Prior knowledge:
Elements: E1 6-11, E2 20-25, H1 37-46, E3 53-56, H2 63-68, E4 74-79, H3 82-94, E5 100-103, E6 114-119, H4 127-139, E7 141-152, H5 157-167, E8 170-177, E9 180-186, E10 200-206, E11 209-215, H6 227-235, E12 243-247, H7 253-261, E13 265-270, H8 273-286, E14 291-294, E15 306-311, H9 319-332, E16 333-344, E17 359-364, E18 368-373
Parallel strand pairs: 3-4, 3-6, 4-5, 6-7, 12-13, 12-15, 13-14, 15-16
Antiparallel strand pairs: 1-2, 7-9, 8-9, 10-11, 16-18, 17-18
Helix pairs in contact: 4-5, 7-8
Amino acid sequence: MSRAPYELAMESRVEGARPTYRFATADGVHSKRSFRAADRLLLESLWDADPGRLLCPEANYGVVGTVLDDAADAVTMTESSARAARLCERNAARNDADAAVELVADYGGLDRAFDAAAYAPKPYTALAVGKRRIADALGALRPGGGLYLAAAAGAGLSRYEDCLAELADSVERVAGRDGCRLLRATRPEAVDAPQYVTSRRIDATVGGVDLPLVSVPGLFAAGRLDRGTRLLLETATPEDDERVLDLCCGYGPVGTYAARVADCKVWLSDDDAMATRCAARSLDASGVDGRVVTADCASGVADRTFDRILCNPPTHAGDGVLDDLFAGARDVLAPGGALTLVHHRDLDLRSHLAPFDAAERRATGPEHVVLTAR
């Protein structure tokens, strides 16, 4: 992330708080131009609630954790997005908040007992994933600790409330505003949660090459190999001894394919920690080697160069993400190297490919095109 172009300011009128909290946001995070009603609900309810050691799951760009650092004994913000985690760190620092930030796929590795958790599920979160995060957050609390969940009806509120009713000692409706409702659930002695998120096996074949892949709900094309990625693989020609980067790897079909068809060194990178966990499992399932990193755009491989980069970019993430993505790809390409990417044929990515000398169309499918930029 080269820059965070959007600025938000939140004024406070409560004792002990800063007069103004300032936040940088960027393309690729939720509600980048305005504060969420769910975050405001959490702040209003937890400020005077003595949150103690506070956990903020999926903290987005860090509003709740940064502000409540002035009311809590300690704050830990977690994110599954590397870009969001970097914004959390930046916003905590600019507001002098002593909050920890951790990039995680789940909260099972958090070795501490929190007194409270504040969770505002993002509206596009897969329901199974949201329930898993609720269960993980409850499990990270001490017995008797409180999980505060704020969501709108369109973000799955009723189903999250049912989930809490199954897992918690008690659930109460605390407050509401602007279509959002705040729930408070009490952690029981033991949290006995179902396996909400289960991995699924995808058996794909491309050009006679079998690809056993591992996915989970919430990832792009979680149920099957998508047409764009298939066209990219049918067009790509990895060669022996090349250094290949699968950029925006998802659960790893491109990097796995490259490692299957050529004796090359493969790296896979994605912003999503859940995706990279699956990518590592996809490599294992195919019996091939590769390095997997969780990082924003190409930042996780900025110290390396590659002969070939293969990419199915997240075109929905916004212009800022695409600009950073392709500028980073240009920086890590070796002299003479090439970026091959696929995108929907209705889109025009020429402005984002400005760092490259030229781009040529390599293949055209019913819905997608494959370009190679050098």
